[in-house]
Amino acid sequence: MFERTVDSSETITFDETVHILHVRVVDGTVNVVPTEGPARLEVAALEGEPLQVTLVDGVLTVTYKDLSWSEFGEAAKSVHSVKSYFSGLRRKRRVEVTVAVPAAASVKVGTVSAHATVSGIAGEVGVHGASGGTTLAGLTGAVSANTVSGDVDAEGLSGELKVNTVSGAVTLVAGSATRIRAHSVSGAVTLDLDAATPTDIGVTTVAGPVGVRLPSFADAKVEAGTTSGTLSSAFDELTVGGGWGSKKLSGQLGAGQGRLQVTTVTGAVTVQRRPDAEEDRPAKELPAGPLDLTKEA
After folding, report:
1. What angle do CA 26, 94, 105 make, to 5 degrees?
2. In this predicted model, what pLDDT tens digit does every residue of 158-197 receive, in sequence order?
């Protein structure tokens, strides 16, 4: 068993193998990266109360003594509850931490306003936040992200992805995930997919616009509906039907083995086609903000 209180900048290398990582912080930054060597914690900056670090039976935990998962679950349900509960914790609780763990480890990160970045992990990944942003890159396992107003930016995911936000935007670039579920109230959802195999995609919003870009060889049954938003598509196989009060964009691409289902109340829905020569183009960097796929190419 390892246990330590960290109250200043410090680097800790762990002798015991880490199978599960739990990080719970308030403000600052959290970076989780893979390593082939022993697990390592780097605290680059710390303001306010000290962190509690423990490693017990392969579970590495980095948090404050009074910040538990149950508190995140009960408080982070709306913008109002987040502000009322975490307003006191935000004061003098800022850290900049990087944690290196084996790629196969499972990772769970909870933040209030801190930005969380998780990259190169093959194990299950979960990120829970309030107003802090989330960046996910090169993950191959199951991924879930839950935020209130923080944006979720993802690139190169190939496992399953599940995202829930209230007003935060969701952007997935160069994704080949096998299953995608995205839900937002007012945040925009943008999916830029390059999967060569059928993908099961489900998106729901209330007022948030939805933009999906698919490869020309896409293989999916498509059904998108909106009450008062606009519908548009770059695929001739997809047609717009319905009338006042309910409109649908539907059709089949390829053999229809995959699925794209979008439901929104007032949000616009756009389905675009990726360029055929996409593979010959330079690799794109993850944009600072969500892609605007609500405009025709």
Report:
1. 60
2. 999 999 999 999 999 988 888 999 999 999 999 999 877 7
The domain spans of the chain are 1-115, 187-277
Establish how many alpha carbons lie within 13 A of residue 95's alpha carbon, considering only the half-sphere containing its beta carbon: 30
- Show the 3-state SS of the chain: CEEEEECCCEEEECCCCCCEEEEECCEEEEEEEECCCCCEEEEEEEEECCEEEEEECCEEEEECCCCCHHHHHHHCCCHHHHHHHHHHHHCCEEEEEEEEECCCCEEEEECCCCEEEEECCCCCEEEECCCCCEEEECCCCCEEEECCCCCEEEECCCCEEEEEECCCCEEEEEECCCEEEEEECCCCEEEEECCCCCCEEEEEECCCCEEEEECCCCCEEEEEEECCCCEEECCCCEEEEEECCEEEEEEEECCCCEEEEEEECCCCEEEEECCCCHHHCCCCCCCCCCCCCCCCC
* pLDDT tens digit sequence for 29-69: 999 999 999 999 999 999 999 999 999 999 999 999 988 87
